[in-house]
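Late entry, written up from scratch paper. The run itself happened at the end of the previous shift, but nothing got recorded in the book at the time, so transcribing now.
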Amino acid sequence: NAYEHSTASSIGQGGLKILAKKGKQTILNAQTQTTDYFFGAGFSGRMTERELLNVLVKLPAGTSEIMCHPGEDDEKTTTKYSHWGFNWKQERDALLSRTVRQFIEKKVYYH
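Output as recorded:
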């Protein structure tokens, strides 16, 4: 159900934050390049066009990673990973959306 997914997602996000904090200094010490920002964990497997546009509107200056799981909702995948509750086709459609593409072309500047 939605509550269980939300609770699991919150726990997962907390775990990611802890790991990110611990790993940040290691990455800095190794002088490894990485993105400045990370978005999308809260919509893991459920990113829609609307949520993607909301992320894009709020992108800060710098490099950002947006986590998405695009794909097909084929029977084999949805059966094997049904416990994840992901909607791969929805995320693929959001990434391929004409509206999203037009927004990026008009608003996002590449360096």
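The longest helix spans residues 2-29.
(Scratch paper discarded after transcription.)
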